Amino acid sequence: MKQLDRVAKATTAVACIFVIIMMLHVSADVVARTFFHSPLIGTTEIVAAYYMVALAFLPIAWISRQRGHIIVELFTSHLPKRKLKALDAFAGLVTLAYVCLFVWKLFEIAIEKTHIREAWESATGFVEIWPSRWIVPAGFLFMAIYVLIHTVRDARAAITGQIPDEDERMEVME
């Protein structure tokens, strides 16, 4: 579990680094375009294919670890905790099935795009973007692992009736 937490923290840190790199890259492009009338080649493509993909999909594992995804409790807020855990376990199973299917298809796409060496056309040539195709399935794979862990814990809590407090749950995760 600690190794998975390290991976989630590392992918989130990499996403943070990509924010800084993107800021520097775009700023350099603006300076080059404004003062030298010569923009940096491929900035738009690199931002869209690499930086934004990393920012959107690398932190998914950390968000899943923290259970930071949106949960609407409009009809379930008054359920007993045991029934709520059973419902959470069911939702976790559905989510896990969907995310695993998603990861499988994303890996197929990444393999295909790697095989053809996918590239986007820029102003003066091509920018290879196939490496960024591996970021999305990796992010969702780590998310699936956390969803599995949470689903097992929710199912165990629903079956046994032993529901940890939020503080205890976070200590177990750490």
Could you characterize what this model shows?
The protein has 174 residues and is mainly α. It has one domain. 72% of the residues lie in helices and 3% in strands. The protein has 6 helices and 2 strands; from the N terminus they run ααααββαα. The protein is elongated and about 65 Å long. The chain starts with a helix and ends with a helix. The model is unreliable at 167-173 (pLDDT under 50). Residues 22-156 form the Tripartite ATP-independent periplasmic transporters DctQ component domain.
List keywords for this structure.
6 helices, 174 residues, transport, transmembrane helix, two-stranded antiparallel sheet, mainly alpha
According to DSSP, the number of beta strands is 2
Helix tally? 6
Most strands sheet:
2 strands, antiparallel
Beta-strand proportion: under 5%
How many domains? 1
Task: Note the run of SSEs as H and E.
Answer: HHHHEEHH
Q: Describe the global form.
A: elongated
Q: What would the average pLDDT be, to the nearest integer?
A: 90
Q: What structural class results from the helix and strand content?
A: mainly alpha
Radius of gyration: 21 Å
For the biggest β-sheet, the strand order reads: 1-2
Separation of the first and last Cα atoms: 8 Å
Helix content: over 70%
Write the layout of secondary structure elements.
Layout: H1 2-36, H2 43-57, H3 60-65, H4 81-115, E1 119-121, E2 126-128, H5 135-160, H6 166-173
Antiparallel strand pairs: 1-2
